[in-house]
Specification:
Length: about 180
């Protein structure tokens, strides 16, 4: 029983650190952030972070994984018909944007970070997302799922930029 309680405490603290890291990385950017910044927002000592993450990069990689996992989880639930699949995916992403605005800002930042491990994870995450969306389009019977999935991701990237720049004129208007 004690082992289970300790395990839960560990996971709760780890989650709190990740959530604090999302906020700090989104506001300051990867290169400006220190683990001291994250520990301050998380309400813990800086050395305590290293019990969970070996380096700032390791923490950032976990943050990236968490962000994309939330997108995958939202999209995996969708089983729309050919007529409404696209709008359901868009709505799911808009819901994520409202619930996790800092994660949208972080996604944009990750596209320009040169560190090899970060680039690799971002590329893998985007490819995995494209394959998930492509599979949804294939399953629904839509034609040209390869290009539809690429168009969907390109529109998502533009929506992220419009969100970050507070420029709604850059977003696509949905057709009713």
């Amino acid at each position: 029983m004690k082992q289970k309680a300790n395990s839960q405490v560990y996971e709760d603290r780890r989650t709190a650190i990740l959530e604090a890291a999302i906020e700090v990385f989104a506001n300051l950017g990867y290169h400006k952030v220190t683990t001291a910044d994250v520990s301050k927002v998380a309400g813990i000592s800086q050395p305590y972070i290293y019990r969970f993450f070996e380096t700032k990069e390791a923490l950032f990689l976990e943050v990236i994984q968490l962000i994309y996992d939330r997108v995958y989880a939202a999209f995996e639930k969708i089983e729309g018909s050919p007529e409404n699949l696209m709008s359901e995916l868009i709505q799911a992403y808009e819901d994520l944007m409202k619930k996790y605005p800092n994660e949208i800002l972080l996604q944009i930042q990750t596209w320009g970070i040169a560190e090899e491990n970060i680039q690799k994870l971002v590329k893998e995450s985007l490819v995995r997302l494209k394959l998930l969306v492509k599979g949804k389009f294939e399953k629904s019977g839509l034609s040209d799922p390869e290009n539809l999935s690429k168009d969907f991701l390109a529109r998502g990237i533009l929506c992220n930029l419009a969100f970050a720049l507070h420029s709604p004129e850059l977003t696509y208007q949905r057709r009713v």
